[in-house]
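Today's session is about reading a structure prediction critically. Students often jump straight to the picture, but the first step is always the sequence itself: look for stretches that repeat, for charged clusters, for runs of hydrophobic residues. Only then move on to the predicted structure, which in these notes is written as discrete structure tokens rather than atom positions. Here is the chain we will use throughout the hour.
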Amino acid sequence: MDKLSELYEKIDRLNRDEFRQLRAYVDQHVEPPQIKDETPHERAVALMAAVENFWEGMSQDEINAIVEDMNMEYIEPLEEDWLSEEEDH
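Below is the predicted structure for this chain, in token form.
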């Protein structure tokens, strides 16, 4: 652990350019997250399983208030063709 704390102290003393170089070095050694090759149906099933208990413990009035708030404002996607891009995969 002493070596790690010594390393932290050295990192704290780096100037901006040295820190950027260190960051680039570390980024080269970090593995990107694995992207699952799932069908849209499989993603939907996983999403539904993840939110299955979302409403649990809430009254119908609380649920209605949340749904109403979510439907108050429509937000355009950042890219107009986001859906077609998703279908291409």
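Discussion point for the tutorial: The two ends are 45 Å apart (CA to CA).
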